[in-house]
Design a protein that fits this description.
This protein is an alpha/beta fold and 231 residues long. 30% of the residues lie in helices and 20% in strands. It has eight helices and nine strands. A hairpin with a 5-residue loop joins strand 8 and strand 9.
Length: 231
């Protein structure tokens, strides 16, 4: 069993698994307890009343953080000719076609997200075994298979967050930095929760959102009072 540090014990004072707080207070506590020497990421965890093994209970989507994420994602784009140039102009970090596919097959994955034009999906589809387990396969429903390469790249660069429910029915995501102003963190948290709420699948029965907690990278989980939210 790993030893709990003095710093973590101090950060956890007054916060237990039974306690819950209104969003404003939860954010205030998070910022007060983020004491690491680096700018900690603000993480959110949502426990949902779904079983992802059933296709009609899968929860997946993308949401743009109103105040950004504090991190610039590296974007790879599979495109050719004019669309490749469009991707470069929009700020894509890596642009290619079959040449990029060869690098990916060799394990050269120096990016966080992928965008592909529809005509490139025959090439990208062959990379499923490599990209699939990493959650990197482009998806038209998430806007990552598109002819509007410019808008897609800029959306990701400006702070778009992609989420997908895990086998245990939990969604995790990094949605900002502890250095953000309290109001900015609140806005990002609210935007994320609202997006997941709207993504409720047809097969979900009973209570959809069961628990929400936020934390900084090195801090304790702070449970949000669901009754204080408009979800």
């Amino acid at each position: 069993m790993s030893k709990i540090s003095k710093r973590y014990k101090k950060a956890s004072e007054g916060i237990s698994s039974e306690s819950s707080f209104e969003l404003k207070e939860a954010v205030k506590l998070l910022k007060e307890r983020a004491s690491a020497k680096f700018d900690e990421t603000v993480d959110i965890a949502m426990n949902l009343g779904v079983d992802p093994k059933h296709s009609d209970q899968m929860v997946r989507g993308v949401v743009s953080m109103p105040k950004g994420t504090g991190k610039t994602a590296r974007v790879a784009v599979f495109a050719k000719d004019k669309k490749a140039e469009e991707a470069k102009s929009a700020g894509a970090d890596i642009v290619g076609a079959e040449d990029l596919a060869e690098k990916v097959e060799k394990g050269e994955i120096n990016f966080d997200r992928i965008i592909a034009t529809p005509d490139m999906m025959a090439v990208v589809g062959k990379l499923g075994k490599v990209l699939g387990p990493r959650g990197l396969m482009p998806n038209p429903k998430l806007g990552s298979v598109t002819m509007d390469v410019d808008a897609a790249v800029k959306a990701i660069k400006s702070g778009q967050v992609e989420y997908k429910v895990e086998k245990s029915g939990i969604i995790h995501a990094g949605i900002g930095k502890a250095s953000f102003k309290e109001q900015d963190i609140e806005e990002n948290v609210s935007a994320f929760i609202n997006s997941v709420s709207k993504a409720k699948p047809s097969g979900a029965k009973g209570q959809f959102i069961k628990k929400i907690s936020i934390s900084s990278s090195m801090g304790p989980a702070i449970k949000i009072d669901l009754n204080s939210l408009n979800v």
